[in-house]
Amino acid sequence: MYAVKKIYRFLLFLSLMLVASLTAAATMPLLIAESRDENGDIAPIRPENQKLIDYFERALDLQFEIRRYPLPRLVESVKAGEGIGFGLSKSQERLKVMRFSEAIFTDFVWVVARNDSTLKFNTLQDLQGKSVGIVRGIRYGEKIDSMRGSFFKVEEDQPQTSSRLKKLLSGRMDVMLFNSRAANAKELEIELNQYVKDKNLRTSSQMKFAIKVFSKPFLADDIHFTAGLQSDRDIIEKINLAIIKGRRSGELPQLFRQ
Fold first, then answer.
1. Domain 107-219 is of which CATH architecture?
2. Which end of the chain has less neighbouring CB within 10 Å, N or C?
């Protein structure tokens, strides 16, 4: 009788383990570009992006294994099928090697200068002959790529916001291009100037300078999930369904307003 009870308990334990394994969410690597703080450490994922990641985990019934990479390595890793990417925009080069989801949100690219700049920015032509700070690895389309080094000079930046602003304040570049979810230039200008103050980025000789953001965006950049062309097509299709469902229910727009 005792032996029968032991067998029963063992079979019950196996059954519970099987149920747990079947109900546990699947995991999937999610590759996100790293950004670094003023100390050179990888900065946490932005809260608004973390809310989106949490939404898609629920909608897809899976758990993301977050991997942070420099942008060039992220692109290569997605292409190789290591996982899906989050936060990439389309380009002709990437479309040859990746599959893109529907747009999750739109990033605005702003032209940012020191407040004593005499530049008046309205069109791309206004940047002729200027030194323009662009984060290494970021591309803004074929037309703009063709102008790099000829129409305007590119100052390749590390992704740390602090080091980029220090470079701008010191006059080592005329302007920098800055990606932000903010759709209003004044809102971003206030945010950047507060950041400069909080991080004490100005030297004693730079205290009279501030940051200004030109009122017209350089461009609007749709942001997507991505997967390598050899990856399972289903995951992008499932993400698209989650995007459509979230838009219709209002859950995704609500996340952007929080």
1. 3-Layer(aba) Sandwich (3.40)
2. N
